[in-house]
Amino acid sequence: MIFSLVLWLMIWGGMFTGPSSLTSSGFLHNFKDTFQGTRAFLPISALYLSFMWIAFRRSRFPYFKDPLGFLFAYGLLGVLISFVLSTDAWESAYWAGNYLAPFMVFWMVYQGKDNVRRLRVIMNLNYTVFFVLTLSLLPSAIKIGRGLAVYSQIYKLPLGLGLVNKNGVGRYALIVIIVSAIRLISEHRLWRLLWLLPMGPALYLLAQTESRTALLGLAVVMVLFFLLKGINLKFLLFAAVGLFVLYTAGFQSRAHGRFDQLIALSGRQNAWSEGIARVKMSPFLGWGFNADRIMLSGAHMHNSYLHAAIQEGLVGMVLFLSAILGIWAVMIWKNVFRVAQDLRGAYQNLLIDSVLIVGFLTSRSFFESTAAFFGVDLLLMVPAMAFISIMLTGRDNREPLLEEAA
C-alpha cells in the first residue's frame, strides 16, 4: 500500500508545472525554476515505476469490466497518436504519459485483498490536498472581500506553485463542501461539528468566485444527495444554505438577475468553433495530447468531449464518452441509491462522496475539459469511478466490506 501511495503523491507532485519549466533559462540557476522543472518529471517517474511493478509481478489487466478501461484506452491511444500526428510530438507525449500515470498506479491499487483500503487512503489524501489548497486561498479571498485587493478572477497558489482561475478555485471549494457536508449530516457524534470549520470558508470562497460551473455542480450535488440519503431536517438546513448561495452568487451577482447572462458561454463558442475546424482536418485520430494549446495559440477547449476529439479524433471522443456513460450505467444498473443506504460508516460516506464528485465533474465536463487531459479533475475522477465500480460490481472485497459495514 505504501508504494502505491508514494506513486500517487508523485503524480500530485507533478501538478501545476510542465515541460516549459524544463526549458526555462533559470532551470539550473534559480531555485524556484529548478523546483518546478524537477517536479515535472514526477508523474512520468510514477508511470515508469508502476509499469516496472506490473511487469515484475506479471499483474493481469484489471479494467476489462470497468469504465476506467475506456479512459485507460484513451490515454494509451493518446501516447501513440502524440508521437505520430502531433506537431510537437515530445510535448504531446509528455502530457499523454502524465495522463496515463494514474491508471497505471490504479492497476496496482486494484490488485490484492486490500484494494479498497488502498483506495480509501488515496481518496483521503485527495481530500487533504483539496482542504489545504482551499484554506491556503482563504487569505487572498478575505482581502478581496474587504476591498484590500482587486478581484481579478485569478488566485495565487501557495509556495509559488502558480495561478488558478475562479473556476478552479470554485472546484476546490465545492469538493471541501461535499466532503464536510456529508460527514456533518451522516455522523452522530458531537465532534462532527468540527466539519463546520472548513465548510464555512469553502462556502465563502465558492460564493466569491461566482463560478457558474461550480454553482451548477452545487445544484447537481444537492439533487444527488437527496436521492442517496432522502430528506431529513439536516438536509433541509443545508439545502436552504445551498439555495441561498445559488441565488445570491449565481443569479443576482454573477448574472445580474438576467437569465440570458446566467447561460452565456463567455466566449467558449469561439474556442469550440476553432477546435471543430481542427478536428475536421484529422477527424478520426486527432492531433495528440495538448493539441488545443499547441494549435490554437494556447486556447483551451472548455469542453471535455471536444477536447478529446481534438486530441484523439472521433475514436478518442467515443472512448472518453463511453467511460462517462459507463460509470452512470453501472450506478443505475446496480442501483447505487439502494447500496448507499445499505452501507454504513466510512464506506457509505466514501460512496456518496464518489457519486457526488462524478455528478459534479460530469456537469462540469460540458463547460471545462474535465478529465480529458492531465489535471486536478482527472485525479478526482479516477478514484471516484474506481470506488463506485469496486463497491457496485463486487470486485475482490465486496462481501467482507458489507459484513464489516453491517
Describe the structure.
- The chain has one domain (2-266, 281-405).
- It has 18 helices and 2 strands.
- It has helices at 2-13, 31-39, 42-57, 68-85, 89-110, 115-145, 166-186, 196-209, 212-229, 233-254, 259-262, 268-281, 291-295, 304-333, 336-342, 345-364, 376-393, 398-405; strands at 154-156, 163-165.
- The chain has a two-stranded antiparallel ribbon.
- A hairpin with a 6-residue loop joins strand 1 (154-156) and strand 2 (163-165).
- The longest helix is centred in the first third of the chain and has 31 residues, at 115-145.
- The chain is globular and about 55 Å long.
- The two termini are 25 Å apart.
- The model is unreliable at 396-406 (pLDDT under 50).
